[in-house]
Amino acid sequence: MTVSGATLSVTNAEETKSFQLTDLVKMYFSNSSTGISDISSDTESQKVDVYTMNGIHVGQFASQTEAMKALPKGIYVIKSNKKSIQVAVQ
User: Per-domain residue ranges for the chain?
Assistant: First the structure.
């Protein structure tokens, strides 16, 4: 992870993603295999929609837990009826 000017770049073994710091509201890090389990208990028992950073709808899941089990590594936006969160699945 590097910051240059107003841009945050995140690199893993497969790809590099860049974000404008002004667009980021929150970032979450986790030791778990997906990083989603520590996001919020708000989305634990409600439907969530998951999108790629390009806005492609990945799917709707019954809960945050179901999304955690299904998503491959990458960076996603998780939307519930209360909020949207950007996450890095590791």
Answer: 25-89
